[in-house]
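Deliverable D2.4 — example input (structure tokens):
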């Protein structure tokens, strides 16, 4: 068990009244330890009191998105529970930044020494073999985390392989309804069962309900308790509770060990357990004070691209896919951050397809393709097999010969599943809501007039507001227009507006995603001479939506498709 005493603005100094702001992680001074057995199986917890402060036992079927963060602190092969986390995609876990950093805010080696335990409500460290363990491939901090003030306390972990638990969805950017003061929120975790340093973690997942407080109440309560103006940061933090009671038999509070776990309202993650007021002898449920959580919606413009950042090389930068004109041979081009490396052969041949786009329909961390057959018009999902590196072809639509194009912009409907758009021959834009498994719900018409555009592209959020957008080029003028995402599944895009004039010189416009790795999608264009340019996204919904194009290659006339 590891109790990470991060400061709440005083660099571990004791504040007025002997109070400190204590990050709610666990303590490494004791507790059971275990070696993760083979076959990715781990063990359940030791026997302790099944009660967090004011909480109740919860089954993993009631919270299938809950996971545990484990870390090998002593380089001895033993892993310790440190924090909770939430599965937000099959291969992504949302947690607190202080859970994956040391006391000074330096990133821990989660790739080399970290692990995620899922599919169990039992705390790791006991005699029973339960749960599924998976390694971590990278960490991302959605903001400049301050260990001194426990600010921007949110992180996203990418897993080495996908998990089978059902993900939970974060609150949308600028969501206000779920944050209304007085709203009852539910927090989950395996935190300490009492406020004394001698108390143990809960052996079974707990849940506790608390009312949300206004920013004004949070500021008054926490800044006053700590005698430190600015300890609570509206916009970055939220707080909840009826106030600590100082009596564990009557209070409802998060404690060390609950850090990184989610606070939920109406099925969405609105907060990540972050910190609370404490003394050295009373670690939580401190009299009259509220618990503090990272406000998830604030960070969604930065988090969403990382949740959706699948690519062929499995890093944080989008790659390019292309096939040759002569024989249809496919290749991938790994992003270097400022361009693309030499091509690598991709499995299969693609001469039978006249349209190919990138996506990851099942969010398994392996990039997929959607391709349309030239002769039949049938549309296929080409996805990596779960047991090998080969790609399986699954038919998803029949006879799409008349469709002008197919677009895979991301999660248009906000349910966590990538969606697909088709432009009909009439110019009608149709939305096909994804189900997360290569299948789709019935389509709906969500736009008209798209016959005016000779290219319709999209892969991500170009305006940095947490909603996927489209780029379209008008055939008559060559102007590039932005169709800004609305977040409304019934009408997901605004009327397109011009953001660049006369793009007629470009024979191809490709939107592979975030090529540079800065969480903003970029654009790759090719001119008639075969010169390739990279236009870095800025996140601005204006004519400055992209930086000036940079030449990144030549000789690209030999490729029929670039995606």
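Example output (designed residues):
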């Amino acid at each position: 068990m590891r109790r990470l005493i991060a400061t709440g603005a005083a660099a571990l100094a004791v504040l007025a009244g002997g109070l400190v702001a204590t990050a709610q992680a666990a303590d490494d001074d004791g507790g059971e330890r275990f070696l993760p057995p083979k076959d990715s199986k781990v063990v359940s917890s030791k026997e302790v009191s099944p009660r967090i402060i004011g909480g109740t036992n919860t089954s993993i079927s009631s919270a299938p998105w809950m996971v545990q963060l484990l870390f090998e602190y002593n380089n001895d092969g033993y892993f310790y529970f440190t924090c909770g986390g939430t599965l937000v995609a099959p291969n992504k876990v949302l947690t607190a930044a202080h859970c994956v950093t040391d006391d000074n805010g330096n990133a821990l080696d989660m790739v080399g020494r970290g692990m995620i335990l899922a599919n169990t409500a039992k705390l790791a460290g006991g005699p029973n073999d339960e749960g599924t363990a998976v390694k971590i491939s990278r960490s991302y901090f959605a903001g400049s985390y301050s260990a001194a003030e426990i600010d921007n306390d949110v992180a996203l972990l990418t897993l080495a392989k996908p998990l089978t638990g059902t993900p939970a969805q974060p609150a949308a950017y600028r969501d206000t309804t779920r944050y209304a003061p007085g709203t009852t929120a539910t927090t989950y975790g395996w935190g300490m069962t009492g406020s004394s340093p001698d108390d143990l973690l809960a052996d079974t997942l707990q849940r506790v309900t608390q009312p949300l407080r206004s920013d004004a109440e949070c500021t008054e309560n926490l800044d006053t308790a700590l005698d430190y103006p600015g300890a609570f940061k509206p916009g970055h933090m939220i707080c909840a509770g009826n106030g600590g009671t100082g009596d564990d038999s009557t209070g409802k509070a998060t404690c060390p060990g609950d850090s990184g776990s989610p606070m939920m309202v109406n099925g969405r993650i609105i907060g990540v357990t972050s910190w609370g007021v404490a003394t050295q002898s009373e670690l939580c449920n401190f009299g009259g004070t509220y618990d503090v959580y990272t406000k998830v919606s604030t960070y969604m413009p930065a988090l969403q691209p990382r949740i959706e950042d699948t690519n062929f090389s499995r890093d944080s930068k989008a790659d390019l896919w292309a096939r040759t004109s002569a024989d249809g041979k496919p290749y991938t081009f790994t992003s270097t951050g400022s361009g693309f490396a030499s091509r690598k052969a991709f499995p299969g041949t693609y001469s039978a397809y006249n349209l190919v786009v990138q996506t990851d329909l099942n969010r398994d961390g392996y990039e997929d393709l959607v391709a349309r057959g030239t002769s039949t018009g049938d549309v296929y999902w080409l996805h990596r097999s779960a047991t090998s590196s080969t790609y399986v072809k699954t038919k998803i639509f029949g006879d799409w010969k008349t469709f002008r194009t197919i677009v895979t912009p991301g999660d248009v409907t906000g349910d966590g599943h990538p969606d697909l758009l088709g432009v009909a021959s009439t110019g009608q834009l149709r939305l096909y809501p994804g189900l997360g498994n290569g299948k789709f719900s019935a389509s709906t018409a969500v736009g008209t007039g798209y016959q005016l555009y000779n290219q319709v592209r999209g892969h991500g959020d170009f305006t940095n507001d947490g909603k996927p957008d489209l780029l379209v080029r008008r055939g008559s003028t060559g102007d590039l227009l932005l169709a800004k995402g609305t977040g409304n599944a019934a009408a997901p895009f605004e009327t397109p507006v011009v953001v660049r004039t006369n793009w007629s010189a470009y024979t191809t416009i490709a939107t592979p995603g975030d090529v540079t790795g800065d969480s903003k999608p970029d654009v790759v264009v090719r001119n008639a001479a075969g010169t390739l340019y990279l236009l870095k996204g800025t996140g601005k919904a204006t004519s400055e939506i992209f930086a000036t194009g940079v030449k990144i290659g030549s000789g690209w006339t030999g490729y029929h498709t670039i995606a």
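The two ends are 47 Å apart (CA to CA).
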